Amino acid sequence: MANWFSALARTRQQLTQTLTRLWRGGAAAGQTLENLEEQLLRADVPSRLAGELLQQLRRTAGEGGPEAVAELRRLLAEALGQPADFTWTGDRKPRTFLIVGVNGSGKTTTCAKLARQAAQTGCRVLLGAADTFRAAGADQLARWADYLQCDVVTGAFGADAAAVAFDALAAAQARGCDVLLIDTAGRMHTKTPLMRELQKVRDVLAKRQPGAPDEVWLVLDATLGQNAIVQARQFHEAVPLTGVVIAKVDGSSKAGFIFAVTRELGVPIRFIGLGEGADDLVPFEADPFVEALLGKAERSAIDAR
Ligand SMILES: Nc1nc2c(ncn2[C@@H]2O[C@H](COP(=O)(O)OP(=O)(O)O)[C@@H](O)[C@H]2O)c(=O)[nH]1
Ligand SMILES: [Mg+2]
Fold this sequence. Notes:
The protein is α/β, with parallel strands linked by helices and 305 residues long. The chain has two domains: 4-82 and 290-303, Four Helix Bundle (Hemerythrin (Met), subunit A) (Up-down Bundle); 95-284, Rossmann fold, CATH 3.40.50.300. The protein is built from 13 helices and eight strands. The protein has an eight-stranded mixed beta sheet with strand order 3-2-4-1-5-6-7-8, with helices on both faces. β7 and β8 form a beta hairpin. Residues 107-108, 131, 137, 183 line the site of magnesium ion. Magnesium ion binds at residues 107-108, 131, 137, 183.
């Protein structure tokens, strides 16, 4: 199973040397802080945030040293905040999750990973394959369901996504499932634009069960960095999001864009994808993220001696 530290290796790589120099402090600390700003930007930390951080660091820890690194850590964690607690079960049964995002962002894989997490807490899970755009779309989710040994409802290739979602909710109700995860398409085969289609899926679910879907989660591809934020805004406008999952953090050198998600969208990040396997998903927490992003400057400083 992947972990935070190895997943963030590519993003961290760019920062390590500068942080080590910052940790050592001394005469060149001013220059080091300038390099740090540049490298935070390269890791796709939003420029306003990077600017604010550096201003603060210059004020409080301009000489560098271990305190400067500790302060940077604290400021980054503070910028992320901690999302409110998340539980798989709620007032309604099933609790319905609509998983949206562009093609290839990692939706289907994320549905499988989420199914496993929910099942591990004792929930009975049903997967709904409302990506009817690709013939392989439903097959991919059905294979995951088979592997995870959970229920799945699929629609025929080209079927109406909203109808499949409706059937999945009906089945989840009939079978007494706790959690329903609905996978959707990232591209449309009909003349209906994607966002319209998602709104229709949402409305049809609400008709079957008032209040459904309980959650609308957007899956973002971390390798896109801040380019993903533009997509996120479009989705958020069409189907108001209640959460974000960041997939492919393990392959990204731009994981700093995660700061833009919390700051610019105001939607909590719920989970982070750290690999392709069913277990490669962890709840999002600010402290281990920042820890893995910055690494141990003190450690590298000692190693470099
Ligand atoms: N390395 C890595 N690959 C991932 C992750 N999540 C998904 N993928 C891969 O990304 C590709 C697209 O994923 P898929 O779930 O089919 O995307 P969808 O089109 O949004 O449903 C697949 O090859 C997945 O194995 C992740 O967290 N890390
Ligand atoms: Mg898919």
